[in-house]
Amino acid sequence: MGFTGSLAGGRALYDLCAARPEPIPFYGELGSVNPMFLLPAALAARGDSIASGWAQSLTMGAGQFCTNPGIAFVVGGSDADAFSAAAKDKLSEIDAQTMLTDGIASAYRQGRDRIRSTSGVREVLNTSCDGRNATPYLFSATGKDWLANEALGEEVFGPLGMIIVAADVHEMTAIAKSLKGQLTCTLHMDDADTEFAQSLLPILERKAGRILANGFPTGVEVCDSMVHGGPYPASTNFGATSVGTMSIRRFLRPIAYQNIPPELLPLDLRD
């Protein structure tokens, strides 16, 4: 069984499959916030262009992509403030979009309200939406608040972004270590960020199935090398992918044929 959807819905199906007298193999994508790490030199040099790209990626398809980059981690300071202002400006230019179902739209507003009411969260961009419409929202919190409240890392399915402001690179490293499993993690970096990026990469390799540099994860190419999966709760099987040529392995079971006469073998295994 293959599934893409919410953590709660996917986990319910996973548990039902596992509880059967003969369990059904289950592959699910259950949730990911696809965090971006904006390293200091890149943030200083091109924070405005990163904010513009983020706004487009965050709101693509009303934010209804499983690779939607919902969280941006930055180190506090004037560059972080300028990035937040630029992201607000870019997102405020994007009109309301129609979500796929009434239920998805309702869940989006519930997620918005959950984030909005969380202690330590500051509202950067407030908009208004109802019915099946979705408008962008932008919130901010400190790295300390993030580390103290794992609920901030739960996915809100839709065009809602959060900027988490770390006190320094050491706190950003602690944040990376705190992440749950993700489909993607992104590094925005320049040459001067290489040493810090080298220290982050081994951490992110344990957190995500796909790691990007200087891009946005909403584009998922169907190719041999694509990995669209990750550690739980991004997916229930971190060794598989649901996009790309290797995705067929989710629905195959390996069999070893030992000392089997050739005439009994499947046709494609015969000489």
Describe the structure.
By secondary structure, the chain is α/β, with parallel strands linked by helices. It folds into two domains: 2-28 and 229-269, no CATH class; 32-213, 3-Layer(aba) Sandwich (Aldehyde Dehydrogenase, Chain A, domain 2). Helix content is 34%, strand content 18%. The chain is built from seven helices and eleven strands. It has helices spanning 7-19, 40-59, 78-92, 102-116, 143-148, 169-178, 194-205, and strands spanning 2-4, 27-29, 36-38, 71-75, 97-98, 122-125, 133-134, 137-142, 160-166, 182-188, 208-213. The strands form three sheets. It has a seven-stranded mixed beta sheet, sandwiched between helices. A two-stranded parallel ribbon has the order 1-2. A two-stranded antiparallel ribbon has the order 5-7. Helix 2 packs parallel to helix 3 (78-92) and helix 6 (169-178) packs parallel to helix 7. The protein starts with a strand and ends in a 58-residue tail after the last strand. The mean pLDDT is 94.
Give the helix/strand layout.
Layout: E1 2-4, H1 7-19, E2 27-29, E3 36-38, H2 40-59, E4 71-75, H3 78-92, E5 97-98, H4 102-116, E6 122-125, E7 133-134, E8 137-142, H5 143-148, E9 160-166, H6 169-178, E10 182-188, H7 194-205, E11 208-213
Parallel strand pairs: 1-2, 3-4, 3-10, 4-9, 8-9, 10-11
Antiparallel strand pairs: 5-7, 6-8
Helix pairs in contact: 2-3, 6-7
Proportion of residues in helical segments:
25-40%
Rg result: 21 Å
Largest pleated sheet: 7 strands, mixed
* Spatial arrangement of strands, main beta sheet: 6-8-9-4-3-10-11
Number of strands: 11
Structural class: alpha/beta
